[in-house]
Design goal:
Length: 309
Amino acid sequence: MPPNLSVKLAPESPAGLTLANPVMTASGTFGYGTEYADVFDIQRLGAIVCKATTLAPREGNPQPRLVETAGGVLNSIGLQNIGVAAVIREKAPLWAKWRVPVIVNIAGDSITDYGKLAARLTGVKGVSGLEVNISCPNVSAGGAAFGARPDTAAAVTAAVRQATTLPVIVKLTPNTGDITAVAQACARAGADAVALINSVKGMAIDVAQRRPAIGSVTGGLSGPAIKPIALAMVYEVSGAVDVPVIGCGGIASAADALEFFMAGASAVQVGSATFANPRAALDVLEGIEAFMAKEGIKSLDEIIGCARK
Ligand code: RRO
């Protein structure tokens, strides 16, 4: 019998969200999936999460928007995207033909925006779930401001929950005093799962120019530098909520992913590793499969949370 890698990400949702395996792409690092369809067999992934989508199209922040730092990358894209109408018109019909489920990451300036986005995307063929982005560090309105506090995070989650029958994942920010309290508030407000972490606020200075290296001064740090932060938060949150936890932050190899499972994650998202290796997510999946075969592990459940016991 081949090992069972399937994972139920929304066990309480009538719509359900069962992935064939626990390896997802992280929003903002994999476009709409279409960009990678000719690079490797993306249908083998557990799920694809598309770039954050807003009600209206957005141009994003001033350049430069991406800077490499030691052990990570700073970004300040500023929610550049084509808007929900174009996602529904141009992308969803393609996704509807795929085996791999696509989850749409949604972001708003106001709580009302999130409800409207959720309603618009409900019933659209090709959309298998929503990832509620209350954690973008690079916008002046909304974004991480909603995710920094349990009450605002719960209000956004409740608005989305009320507007949709789709499975709802809430993506959390590390830029808060107590991510566990935020996660608990989201779960109570109806989140089917939580994903953590989004990028960590940071900056770099261009010494020759004597100016911030990022156009908007600060950005979000992702990559290997944030993995220990993400892992500690996944460990803490997965001990405090009953909903599945999706680990994200610096995952570039199967060994990284296994650490997150052992800390309590039910699934993982591969993000900026894709910039250096476009097929990073598939490499992670194949490495997990090889580890399970070597260790005689029949089901992911045997390792999820095992470092907690
Ligand atoms: O677009 C961005 O600048 C961005 C977003 Br929406 C996010 O959720 N996380 C991030 O690091 N950058």
